[in-house]
Specification:
Two copies of one chain form a homodimer. By secondary structure, the first copy, chain A, is α/β, with parallel strands linked by helices. Chain A contains five helices and seven strands; from the N terminus they run αβαβββββααβα. In chain A, strands 2-5-6-1-7 form a five-stranded mixed beta sheet. A two-stranded antiparallel ribbon of chain A has the order 3-4. In chain A, strand 3 and strand 4 form a beta hairpin. In chain A, helix 1 packs across helix 4. The structure holds cGAMP. Chains A, B: One of its GO terms (biological process) is cytoplasmic pattern recognition receptor signaling pathway.
Chain lengths: ~180, ~180
């Protein structure tokens, strides 16, 4: 099953690399943005990872919900990776409540694979794969000491998607109840 | 199986994005490096992707073989991806024969997964997964019009690994026979 490999790849090739550095990146960001406005009042210093059950993803979050607006990027991380010198890893900060927010990248792969005939699965199996990805990633992260308390997985069920502020409401629910 | 998903993810999340832009990046690189030396005489304008069957990867190619040396990076590509504003994709140029060269990153995932008890496979299955990754990626790329003639997959069998210049020789063999 595809989702198992994608969950491991997302952890080993991304979260395990960037989450231990996130706290320092946010501190550097706050220091350089002090003058413009006191930041991060109620925000959370975790990486908020959106996992829509229907794998429906846009590349600009403000296109999904007008209550979400892009603020700025955290400082870049450059890491030598498999022959690419100084590969760049970056995160974007959004104004919902000041937080680093992005979709889980492998969902885009699952969405695109479900549209390719030769990839081997269609739309009905896709939801199962997204759910399996979410559960496998949760299990992996639960065992990871270096990523503990540095992330928040936000599973988005699509029953209220017709609400134009469905996304910001779901994020705020997570920020307020669990931090 | 894991390799199938990783091959699709490598294509949909990377090769399909960067290969169509590679020709322009190399042209921009040559224009800005004209003064230092006439570049790309015998080199190839494809992305050379190394696929070692034993999934043995280092992050700096000159550590593997002293005949390979890092020259410079191509200009960065910035693309908005799943909420990350201006995600950076870059390639490194090495002096073997002036070419863009990197390992296939998913092999690092396969290597690391084979060391994690809960990931579900060990070293003997890993070789099979690498071979399956290579074959699946070949099939996907064979069908891809936008990536045609823009890449070269270099499968590295490990029988001659004790030769300190095994890697540069394998690359030169590919460059000379197939371009
Ligand atoms: N949001 C986000 N920002 C990042 O910088 C990032 N880097 C990786 N990932 C996701 O983590 C996982 C593991 O990454 P890996 O590099 O092993 O595989 C990557 C890698 O093999 C290749 N690839 C993608 N971007 C690059 C890149 N910039 N340079 C080289 N290879 C790349 O194509 C695979 C799929 O990439 P994405 O489809 O972007 O999702 C990846 C993947 O789900 C990221 N996700």
């Amino acid at each position: 099953n595809v989702a198992h490999g994608l969950a491991w790849s997302f952890y080993l090739g991304y979260l395990q690399l960037v989450l231990p550095r996130l706290e320092d990146s946010i501190a550097a960001f706050c220091a350089s943005h002090q003058a413009t406005r006191p930041l991060w009042g109620r925000g959370s210093r975790k990486l908020h990872i959106l996992i829509p059950l229907n794998a429906n993803i846009s590349h600009k979050l403000e296109d999904e919900d007008s209550n979400i607006c892009f603020y700025d990027n955290l400082p870049n991380n450059e890491i030598d990776r498999v022959g690419v010198r100084g590969r760049v890893y970056k995160h974007s900060i959004y104004r919902v409540h000041d937080c680093a927010l992005e979709y889980a990248t492998p969902l885009l792969t699952l969405y695109r694979m479900s549209q390719e005939r030769s990839a081997g699965f269609g739309e009905p199996e896709r939801r199962q794969q997204v759910l399996l990805f979410y559960r496998t990633l949760q299990d992996i992260l639960d065992q990871s000491l270096e990523c503990r308390n540095r992330y928040k997985l936000i599973l988005l069920r699509d029953e209220r998607e017709d609400d134009p502020h469905f996304l910001s409401k779901a994020i705020l629910r997570h920020l307020e109840h669990q931090d």
